[in-house]
Amino acid sequence: MILDALSVLLLLLGLFFFVSGLLGLWRFPDTFARLHALTKADNLGLGLVMTGLLFQVPDVLWAIKFILVWLLALVASAVNAHLIAVFLHRQQEGHDESA
Amino acid sequence: MNEAASVVWVISLPLLGALLATVWRQYAATIGWVSSALTAGCAVWLLWVVQRAGVQELALGGWEIGLGISLYADGLAAVMVLMSSLVVLGCSVYARHYFRAQRQHELFWPLWLLLATALNALFLAGDLFNVYVTLELLGISASALTALGAKRAALRAALRYLVVGLLGSMLYLMAITLLYAAYGTLNAVQIAEALQVDPLGWAALLLMLAGLALKMALFPLHFWLPPAHSNAPAPVSAALSALVVKAAFYLVVRLWFEVFAPLTTPLLANALGALGAMAVLWGSWSALRAERLKLLAAYSSVAQLGYLVMFFPLLAVLEGEARQWLFGAMVLFALSHAFAKSALFLAAGILLQYAGHDRIRELSGTTQALPLTTFVIALAGIALVGLPPSGAFLGKWYLLDAAFKTGQWWWVLVLVAGSLLATAYVFRLLGHAFGHLPAVKRPVVAATQEIPALALALLATFGLGLGAMSLWSWLAHTGTGAGL
Amino acid sequence: MNLLDGLWGVLDLLLVAVLLLLAMAAVLSSDRRRSMMLFIVFGLVLALVWARLHAPDIALAEAAIGAGLGGALLMATLRRDTHQQTDQFPQHPVVLWGVGVLVMVLGTAIAWGLFSVLPTVEQTWRKGAAVDAQLAFSGVSHPVTAVLLNFRAWDTLLELAVLLAAIFGIRALGYVRSAYVTEVAFSQLAVWLVPLLILMAGYVLWAGAHSPGGAFQAGALLAGAGILLRLAGYSHAGLPTTRWLVRLGLVAGTGVFLLVGLGLLGWGQGFLHYPIAYAKWWILLIEMLATVSIGMTLTLAFMGGIPQKEAA
Amino acid sequence: MNTVLLAVVVVLALVLLISLLIMLSRTRLTDRLLAVQLLGTLGVAILLMLAVVMQQRAFLDTALVLVLLAVVVTAVFTHRQRGGKS
User: Fold this and answer.
1) What are the residue boundaries of the NADH:quinone oxidoreductase/Mrp antiporter transmembrane domain, all occurrences included (chain B) (predicted)?
2) Mutate to test the interface with C, among B22, B123, B208 (most CBs of C within 10 A)
3) Which of C82, C102, C122 is the last residue of a domain?
4) Which of B326, B331, B304, B328 is nearest to B316 (CA)?
5) Which of B207, B259, C91, C96 is surrounded by the fewest CB atoms within 10 Å?
6) Of C82, C100, C116, which marks where a domain is finished?
């Protein structure tokens, strides 16, 4: 019961971060700021959702896979954010007219 | 080896050839024509097996049919496989000396053999989803081969051809989804047995007909055919016009007369026949006005497919013996067109190589320079018009006969008008070709290019005409799906 | 219980709304880059929908091939397409009306057919439980793999041939390969990701015997690794530098599949008829080579052909 | 508990819908790319939740594949070609 409550709490926190990421995407003035808000949101949001779910899994193999997904998502989101930032930077420097 | 193995070999040999030609690129041409020749041999074997031992049904993997896939070879399928293998063989021999650029050579052979695999696999498929897979292979290899034409127009035509082909396959796939959801099997015979006259059946029939009409370029969905068929390399054009559209027609025949037989009403058949009639008139008229020989040949294909569809309304009302003979005549007409049209395209390729263009107005002197090629064009023309002794003559004659017998005289008008137009475009072509030019240089033409074209043209006229009776009677009486 | 059903209903509605919105936006958008981004998201949401429909196999395939690799290939195509010309279909009003009517008729036919089949589809599925009955004799314990590699192996064999035709088609279009600018930071990250992708491919292949997975998904992951290597500055994307070895790799899957089938025929078993005792091993062999072939084909599709010597 | 989890999934799907609408309203390419990233993460989160609710371990593999290939897609999209063309 306590585990369930904890799980719900974490899930709600995760949701909060997702929603704030959404707000960031919507309201933040320039793209770098949006990038910043977004990366935070989806790493933390996904992390919290994942942790919340950890209390609900049937066996330890599930738990390992959950953590694996999250770790990979961290790596992936770091790479993604870097790529997007470089792309954006290049655009703003005027290297790229096609976008 | 047991007799049913022939079914497997006519599909496996070209596929094996395609794989070998990919890896051993320097021997690709040799691998190509050797495997085509072996396939043709196996196709004869298959026909012999079917003639002797009746319908061959092979459950692949040893699973019960329905769970596993079956290959199904009856008389119609065996004849189509033989037709396709012979045309492929002719074009393969021709193609050895056709391509100049190394890159084209390297890409042509694997794709060409994959096309041959797809055709034979399609003719022999007993499973409707398997048919879809073969349609995919056929569509992709055919449009890739069209792109080998290398000109910008060819690339554009190839891409459009690809998109149209995918659209057709998609419609067909949707129909299969519906049928599978309703009957829980993909096997054609099992679906035919279970099929009921209900909205689902109608929807499936409509979707399949629409998809396949697109693929066989039935008027008014023929818009993609002339650019694709006229811009592809000559051996590819030959196969596209002679075989690929015919594969779609073959599927329509199978679905119409076997799977969906309870749903097909004379009204629907007449609607199809009307489209066919318009295809005949429009295709022949456009062929008459075409500036280029290959464009003429492509438009003539639109018309010839129209004739094939015009058999449907008459088959819908005839019964018994007369219907069987008419069915045989339709197959004979399809065969005749396959050989004639491939010969015409191969001849056009020779002309294009030596004259540098195929503009009909400027063909004067062709007879002097390329007598054999002109002869091939004339023979192919005989079959396209439907003059005796070609196979098409028998087909048209019997169509005429059936139209009178059933009192549907309006088809006769279309038939006569189409034939007159065909005569006009063939004689316009020959008229220009026979134009005399002073001092024409005789180019050296590789015999391996002219002989296959001649052989195919002879098959269309004398072969099918004089040897037709036994084949016709066999088609009418055994194994064809007509009686199913 | 009622609340649960209600929530499922709301979720379904939301997913359908998202899917429809995406599809319409992707088709109607005039900017092709935008369309493709929408298409990729479409693949992602479609994977969710398949998951919701209890179809984990298709969800996995959609994630790997539809959203992931398909997206990468589309992007690559768009970037190679330097001339911004579009092939306009005829705009004549008669043609447009004709197409419109045809689409309406076919759409109605599909809807009509679907509505008539929906009430009975469950029964049909129960009746057609032949796969489960024969699963024990197929050599694998996952029904989808059993269908793909054993019951309907012929379809899969031909599908592999379709991939082969596709790669030749891409070559026939004669794309100009452009070189990529390599960035150090990206190359460092790619070095981390490539082994992960290969490991994951191995896992997905192995998992296919007993749970969703298999050669096509694993091949897509391998191709993902190849694409990353290509972008990170490896001109051959990890493929062999000997050209005939590449070609051998391309045909390996189809080739072994066909040779096993024909070999069994020669053995007296029948085409593609595995003996029960060895079925598992034949399937494993075929799947492994098919994975390699699919991975190489998709990587080459991204690159536009077998790499030539590239200027530094 | 499943009801609660499913409710969270519904909210996540709602967020997905809204981010899609934001994405459609944006004209700049990078903004759209950002939105795609958010959509991807939301998709993964929904898949993880569905895995627990529907007791399907296979969805975890799907999530892994999505995460890994998302990088490939972004890399292809943002990578620069020689000659300054992007």
Assistant:
1) 125-421
2) B22
3) C82
4) B326
5) C91
6) C82
